[in-house]
# Entry
Amino acid sequence: MFERIREDIQCVFDRDPAARNVFEVLTTYPGVHAVLAHRVSHFLWRSGLRWLARFISMVSRWMTGIEIHPGARIGRRFFIDHGMGVVIGETAEVGDDCTLYHGVTLGGTSWDKGKRHPTLGNDVVVGAGAKVLGPIMLHDGCRVGSNAVVVKDVPSSVTVVGVPGRIISTATKDKGERDARRQAFAEKMGFDAYGMTQDMPDPVANAINSMLDHIHAMDVRMAEMCHSINKLGGKVDESVLPNLEGCELADGDEKKNRPEIAKTEN
# Structure
């Protein structure tokens, strides 16, 4: 238990740049106080001293504003940032290296006894005000956005936002390959598609990503058609299209090459 307490203190320095020294963390961080109190109350709970465990949990809640049921199972290096309003239910399970922000609820959706609270895998981050409800599983490495309401299982290494929670991005090999392809195709077009790798649901970035995917698919299909036509005896230029970057026409050249512009101005 003492080894876990030392890890709980040390992990604060890894996740909060405002932390300066151990004395400050021990005396001024309510999230650390709540976790330390829970380590003690959980030990008492498992030892059968359940009233005493609940009493310590109540005192901790009064002092920190963080309510953790002594029956909840908390992994190593657990960090609650700010902490006010955090609620963790009796049958909740939290893996190693998880982070919760203020206002998070790991709650139940039923009054039935048994498993009724969520399970968090390792390295899960739950943003401020988010609600994770029911006996669901948040797998390793997933992220829950602020104020999201999650009521279904969440796969590994994804970001979930909204009410109800929906997946908006993945941190998988396929996503990396897709983003690299989009970036390469955008450079070929001479276009800077900003925000392509952002996890937040930016509608403009999503529209640009969809356009790049569509243009890439059309480009591949056109190349296949040209190749097939040439195999049948046709004569279609299959040379690689030039990069559009730096190819903008001057005003005079544009009017010369597009007479309709000059006609409109006249």
About this structure: The chain has a mean pLDDT of 79.
